[in-house]
Design brief:
Keywords: Membrane, Sugar transport, Symport, Transmembrane, Transmembrane helix, Transport. The protein is mainly alpha-helical. The chain has two domains: 188 residues, no CATH class; 44 residues. 75% of the residues lie in helices and 0% in strands.
């Protein structure tokens, strides 16, 4: 669908980020709501308190949506069967070609490495380092809010649960910025260029992660941790970090792939099946 149009590649990645942001907004809205145990009353049991019931209810919703979207995908995607003329039975074809196809794929995948130029290796390295930074944030962001900002511990009082819900709110706002940025990416690219924006997003991402350390240090030195709820200023500062990270988050899901596609096609490696 994209052919060799680099602009369409950027637009496609931007729309991917946009719809992912919409899904994230709905998901984090679910996580920030504390009354799911009333909707799914059976989730609340003597062995599962309110926080557990809310989490269990979120998984119930997840299962429902996965089932619905899977059904839609199966029904909407019409596969065209192979022509019966000259074709082997499915079992024989799979037995005879699966190994060859797998070896050819791996050979093509690793064989292209020797054609990679310095810019391609630079993009791959920077993208790998970015994801090393993203994974701890995406895994522990709500727990950071519950432990370091609200001073709570899991299953020990309401502070941790409140902090986790506030972290989910921060991720919701992060997804809103991600979606808005995705819509504006093409216009920003035309004005500043993808390389410049990617570099700015790397710097902004690093500043935000350092800011998390600063906010944690300030929160621990104020002296409210373990005694009271955090001051409004600390909560607002934490949410601002979540919000600002929405911009580099959108860049992460768009620019590296578009830049790699541009360089790969310039080397003539865009159609491995024909090379």
């Amino acid at each position: 669908m994209l052919g060799k149009d680099h602009r369409r590649t950027r637009v496609a990645n931007a729309y991917y980020s946009l719809f992912m942001a919409i899904g994230n907004i709905l998901g984090y809205t679910t996580g920030s709501y504390s009354g799911w145990y009333k909707v799914f009353a059976l989730a609340l049991t003597p062995a599962c308190n309110i926080s557990c019931a809310n989490l269990k209810s979120a998984f119930f919703l997840d299962i429902i949506f996965i089932a619905v979207t899977t059904y839609i995908s199966i029904v909407a995607a019409k596969e065209v069967p192979l022509s019966s003329s000259g074709a082997l039975p499915v079992e024989e074809a799979a037995a005879g070609e699966s190994g060859t196809a797998g070896e050819a794929f791996l050979w093509q995948l690793f064989g292209t490495f020797r054609y990679f130029s310095t810019p391609i290796w630079t993009i791959l390295t920077v993208n790998a380092l970015r994801w090393i930074g993203w994974f701890p944030f995406l895994l522990f962001d709500t727990d950071w809010m519950g432990r370091e900002i609200y001073g709570g511990e899991p299953n020990e009082g309401p502070n941790h649960d409140t902090g986790v819900r506030m972290g989910a709110l921060g991720l919701l706002l992060n997804s809103v910025v991600l979606g808005v940025t995705s819509v504006l990416l093409e216009r920003l690219c035309r004005k500043r260029g993808p390389g410049f924006l990617w570099g700015i997003s790397n710097i902004l991402m690093a500043v935000c992660f350092i800011s998390m350390l600063v906010v944690t240090y300030v929160a621990n030195n104020i002296g409210y941790v373990g005694k009271d709820l955090p001051p409004t200023g600390i909560v607002i500062a934490s949410l601002i970090i979540f919000i600002v990270l929405g911009f580099p988050h959108a860049i992460t899901y768009s620019f590296p792939y578009a830049l790699i596609s541009t360089h790969i096609q310039s080397l003539g490696l865009g159609h491995c099946g024909q090379d």
